[in-house]
Each structure stands twice: as C-alpha cells, then as structure tokens.
Design a protein that fits this description.
Order of helices and strands: HHHHHHHHHHHHHHHHHHH
Radius of gyration: 55 Å
Strand content: under 5%
Structural class: mainly alpha
Number of helices: 19
C-alpha cells in the first residue's frame, strides 16, 4: 500500500481538521472596512455628479407630436423637427434627415425652412457644401422678409460666397436687414461706413410660412417684415398688380422640385414682365436661361434681359453683357458686351466696372469708338425718355390736381346745396310748428271764453225760469150712484172753515 507523502495544510501542523482560519476572516474584515471608508469619502462627489439622464418623457412626447404634425404638413413642425434632428438634443442627431425636412419646408415657401436649408448648404452639414445653392435659398428667405436671411445675404455679397462680390449689393441687403431689426446688419453697416436706415414697424404675425390654399404655419418669429399673405398676394396678382405677380412668381419658383409650380411661376413672371416689372423680366430671363419650368432658350433669356437693360437696370445690363461676351443665345460680340458693361458701371455696379476694365484692353480702337458712340446715344435716348416721362408725369399730376380741385369744388357746392335744402326744410318745419302752436293757443282761448260764459250763465237765472204760484187744483170728481157715499165725498172735498167766534 502506497502512502501519499505530498505536503498539505493538514500535514503542516498549523491548521488541523475542525479548526477555523482566523487570519482569513481578518482579511475579509479589513476589505469591508476599506470599502466603507471609500464610500464615505466619495459620497459627496457621487451626489454632485452629472450622469446625463435620458431625455424626460415630456421632451420625447414633444418630439413625437412634432413628427406627427410634420407628416401632416405643418410648416412650423417641419422646421422644428429639422432643428431637433440637427441638434440631437431630443432625438438622435441625423443631419441628413434634418436636411430632408428643411428641404420640404423650403420648397413649400417657408422663409425659415429656406434659411435653414441654405445654412446646411453653406456649412456642408448633411449635404455637400455648395455656396451657390446656399446663396439661392438664403435669397429666397430674404425675399420672404426674414431678417437673419437679409443680413446673411449681405454677408454673402460682401465676401463673394456663392455670388459675385458686390459691395453695393451687400450694403443694400444689410440695409434691408437693419430696417427689419437685425442688430448684426446694423453693425455691418457701421463697419462698412454706410448709413443705418431707421427700423420699420415689425408686425408679430403667425403667418411665417403661407401655404397654398391659405394654410398658415405657426411660426411667430418677430424679426420679420410684415408681408402680405399668400391669399392676399394671389388675389392682387389676379387683379393685375405687377408687384404681386412678381412676388407670387417668386414663391412658386422657390419650389424647384415641382414642375407645375415652376410653370406657374413662369406665367406670373410673364404677366408682370409685360407690365414693365424689371425684376420679373430678369427672373423670367434666368428661367429661360436655365430651363426652369420652360424649355431652355438663351435667345428668349437675352430678350427679357434686354427689356430690363433698356430701362437702365444695371443687373440686367450685366447679364446681357455676359451673354454677348460668351456668345450664349446669340453671336459673340465683345463690343456690345462692353457697351452694356459701361452703362452698368456708370450706375456703380462693381462687377461691371471690373469687366469693363478687363474687356477694354481686348477691344480695337474702332470698337472702342463704336462703344462710346452707342453709350452716348443710349444716354441721350434715355435722358429724352426720362424727360418725356417726367413731363408726362407732371402733366398727369397737374391733371390729377385739377381734377381733385374740381372734385373738391363740386363737393363743396353739393354740400352748400344740401345745407340750403336742409335749412329750407327746417324753416318749413318751424313755420308749420309755429302755425300749429298758434292754432292750439286760439282753440285754448276759445275754450276758456266759453267756460267763462257758461259760469256766468249759471249765476244769473233768466225770468222765464222764476217759480210760479201754485194753482188751485180742483178735487177729483168721483162717480158713484150711492147718495150717502157721494155726500161723504163732498164733505171731504170742502175746505176747512175757521172756527166760529
């Protein structure tokens, strides 16, 4: 039999079977005491620690309510949902989803959505960075009266972000932002040394995004210029107001994903352009140039640019000059391009001045002379037209003044005639009332006289009414056949005789 001689704790003689290891118990006790000490030491830090609790149920409920309203078509909800998704404060951050909701709101004409969409294009969050598209959507928001968009568009023109750098355009948009109450726009004007216009009255309205069919969003941003509602604009456009037609075309043209809206925008721009609205002519030319809502036609674009350019619109002159310079929709002609650049530069257009200086070095002396002649002829023609318009305006004002004076004189005569008629009517009424009063007084006097006579007649008894002496009434005769009865009756009828002496 083999015996196991391996050492063990039982064979060491230190711990025997049935005994307790007190050293192990002491170690466990020390661990417990150290844990309690550490807990007491770090308890204040645990009490003040910020463990970033999950969003409360109220915030989550608000998110789901916003999501439901956005799906039902609320512009305000679509903008708020995009903001929630972009910030990640309530819902998980999702810039692409935020971009999608901002795009939906922007295409439906919400200035807030257009500004948010432009900012995403500007920063490149959720979409590829594109300053040109950012400027496009911010311009749409600025046209809707959004003060932040007005200020931001001025910054884009100042820095040349997505648009040609234009100092005058920057000051113009900063000025509009200052009038809308933008503090940043005022600071920008002061920084550029430009005058700060006084602020306009701001209307706090609940019609931030006015939808088709008269639907309003609940955006109550106070920093927005009061603008007509969609229904008011459409009604004025139908009645032929060119400014309303242009504004309606601008709203519809912002919905770049809807072909029907783009076609409708073209129709409204055409209606306003026929009435001489220059900005409508420019926008209509751009739609033909880019093929938005219509078939791409650079020749028609040049036609509409020319309509506004001939009215001395600097922006249209620059666009028309570029078409001639690049040969888009027409034969390339640097001389005509220089002509329009020169006319635009005379009005202070910075880009036109730069292009004019650059193109002057490429023209021949004959072309330069021709340009000077054309510019001079245009200025003379324009001056003659302005003079004729001023004279016509003066004649119209004089005619309007004369008609107003004649109308005022006629109204004065009518007022005098009316006053005279009223005076005559009052005099007739007073005469009738006086006659009636006199007749009443006469009747009263007559009644009083009759009453006095009646009273006097009661006091004086007339002679024929004096009392009469009593007449002797013969006794009645009684017919009877009885002699004794007859004698008795006769005795009764005899008058009483005085007693004898």
């Amino acid at each position: 039999m083999r015996v196991n001689n391996r050492p063990s704790l039982l064979n060491k003689g230190t711990i025997h079977r049935g005994q307790i290891d007190y050293r192990q118990g002491h170690d466990q006790l020390r661990l417990i005491i150290m844990g309690l000490v550490l807990f007491v030491v770090f308890l204040p830090f645990l009490a003040t620690a910020d463990f970033a609790p999950p969003p409360p149920m109220t915030a989550l409920n608000h998110y789901y309510e916003t999501l439901r309203a956005a799906r039902e078509g609320s512009l305000d909800a679509q903008n708020r949902l995009g903001t929630m998704l972009a910030s990640g404060e309530v819902a998980p951050k999702d810039l692409q989803a935020a971009f999608a909701w901002f795009e939906v709101a922007a295409m439906r004409g919400s200035p807030e959505g257009q500004l948010n969409l432009g900012m995403l294009y500007y920063t490149g969050e959720g979409v590829k960075e594109d300053h040109a598209k950012a400027a496009l959507w911010i311009r749409k928001a600025a046209d809707g009266g959004h003060s932040k968009a007005l200020n931001l568009l001025g910054y884009f023109y100042e820095q040349g972000l997505g648009v040609k750098a234009d100092h005058h355009q920057a000051i113009e948009w900063y000025g509009k932002g200052a009038m809308a109450g933008s503090f940043e726009a005022k600071n920008s004007l002061i920084r550029l040394g430009a005058p700060v216009p006084p602020p306009q009255k701001i209307e706090e309205s609940d019609s931030s995004g006015v939808l088709e069919g008269g639907e309003h969003s609940a955006d109550t941003t106070p920093s927005r210029i009061a603008v007509p509602t969609y229904n008011q604009t459409r009604l004025a456009a139908v009645r032929g107001n060119p400014e309303a037609q242009y504004r309606l075309g601008t709203i519809l043209s912002s919905r770049v994903g809807n072909l029907a809206d783009l076609m409708a925008a073209t129709s409204w721009f055409q209606a306003a352009a026929k009435q001489g609205h220059q900005q409508s002519q420019i926008d209509l030319g751009m739609m033909y140039l880019l093929g938005l809502g219509v078939k791409e036609d650079p020749a028609k674009a040049a036609h509409f640019f020319s309509m506004a350019a001939k009215e001395d619109n600097a922006e249209a002159q620059v666009l028309l000059a570029r078409l001639y310079l690049w040969g888009i929709g027409m034969e390339k002609n640097p001389a005509i391009a220089q002509q329009w650049y020169t006319l635009a530069a005379d009005q202070g257009h910075i880009n036109a001045k730069k292009e004019q200086d650059r193109l002057a070095e490429l023209l021949t002396p004959e072309q330069a002379i021709w340009v000077d002649q054309q510019v001079g002829a245009f200025r003379l023609e324009r001056a003659a037209k302005l003079k004729a318009e001023a004279e016509a305006k003066a004649k119209a004002e004089a005619l309007a003044k004369r008609l107003a004076e004649e109308k005022a004189e006629k109204e004065r005569q009518l007022a005098e005639e009316k006053a005279e008629r009223e005076r005559q009517i009052l005099a007739t009424i007073e005469a009738r009332e006086e006659a009636a009063s006199q007749a009443w007084l006469a009747r009263e006097e007559e009644r009083e006289e009759q009453a006095k006579k009646a009273l006097a007649s009661q006091k004086e008894v007339p002679p024929h009414r004096q009392p009469m002496e009593e007449a002797a009434v013969p006794p009645p005769q009684v017919a009877t056949d009885d002699p004794d009865r007859l004698e008795q009756l006769n005795q009764l009828n005899q008058p009483d005789q005085p007693p004898s002496q």
